[in-house]
């Protein structure tokens, strides 16, 4: 039976800026029933990790999203199954390559304890570094497109703000499902990344007249069946103006964007 593992980890004993991220040691207990212990090969970094680290002075102030101190950050990661809890059949065995979408103990460490439902098989043609970037961005994109906006093959989809992690995942998922996809980005490098992800057309949203350019990129200039917006509600009026009658618009859960600090909004990829 597996015992405790003592490993190096990043531990936050206080909330605050990057200076609270301290390398320390941490004991990871053996997995219980329904749990898996993973040797982490790569950890992903998400904006939400920053919001958690900031604590009461950040966007998550007053919510239930702040962990008790001390804590190890990190939701995403990839690695090798080290041990599996006994007491019920498991989809995994020691040695399996996996990626994570969440964990019990945090992924900024050499080992992480996870619930089995947070663990997914990593294909052999996907690297550990790529796997560490798949969890939060990929599931957010999937939820927005298919669970909230109910995207169907053959539809025309706008990914507004497509050069970020969630946006690039959304482009790839929508293209793979048989949609015509137009993506926007704010820089030349961003536009190239969106194009490389498979978008059929790319528009720079910093250019004057980009809304008209996005519409012109749709078949017969008829507009979009679905728009997935990465900047919360900041572009919603222009997004809605690009929709076909009966179209669906969704926004990443995201944060309100304005002159002051960014604050959490309710709901994630909520249909509008």
From TrEMBL:
Record-annotated Enoyl reductase (ER) domain positions: 16-272
This protein's UniProt keywords: NADP
A Pfam family reported for this protein in Swiss-Prot or TrEMBL: ADH_zinc_N
Keyword Plastid in record: no
GO cellular component, one term: cytosol
Annotated region described as Disordered, given as residue ranges: 241-272
Any GO MF annotation of the entry: NADPH binding
Protein name as it appears in the record: NADPH2:quinone reductase
Taxonomic source organism: Tetraselmis sp. GSL018
């Amino acid at each position: 039976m597996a015992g405790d593992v003592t490993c190096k980890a990043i531990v936050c004993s206080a909330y605050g800026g990057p200076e609270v991220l301290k390398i320390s040691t941490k004991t990871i207990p053996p997995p219980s029933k329904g749990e898996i212990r993973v040797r982490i090969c790569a950890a992903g970094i998400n904006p939400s990790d920053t919001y958690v680290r900031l604590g009461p002075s950040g966007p998550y102030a007053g919510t239930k999203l702040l962990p008790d101190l001390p804590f190890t950050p990190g939701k995403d990661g990839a690695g090798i199954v080290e041990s599996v809890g006994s007491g019920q059949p498991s989809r995994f065995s020691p040695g399996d390559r996996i990626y994570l979408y969440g964990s019990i103990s945090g992924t900024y460490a050499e080992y992480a304890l996870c619930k089995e439902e947070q663990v997914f098989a990593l294909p052999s043609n996907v690297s550990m570094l790529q796997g560490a970037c798949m969890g939060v961005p990929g599931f957010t994109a999937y939820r927005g497109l298919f669970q909230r906006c109910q995207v169907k093959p053959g539809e025309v989809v706008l990914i507004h703000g497509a050069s970020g992690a969630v946006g690039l995942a959304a482009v790839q998922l929508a293209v793979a499902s048989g949609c015509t996809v137009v993506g926007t980005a704010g820089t030349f490098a961003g536009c190239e990344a969106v194009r490389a992800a498979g978008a059929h057309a790319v528009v720079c949203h910093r250019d004057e007249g980009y809304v008209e350019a996005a519409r012109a990129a749709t078949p017969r200039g008829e507009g979009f069946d679905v728009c997935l917006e990465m900047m919360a509600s900041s572009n919603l009026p222009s997004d809605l103006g690009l929709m076909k009658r009966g179209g669906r618009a969704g926004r990443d859960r995201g944060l309100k964007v304005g002159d002051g600090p960014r604050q959490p909004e309710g709901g994630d990829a909520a249909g509008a």
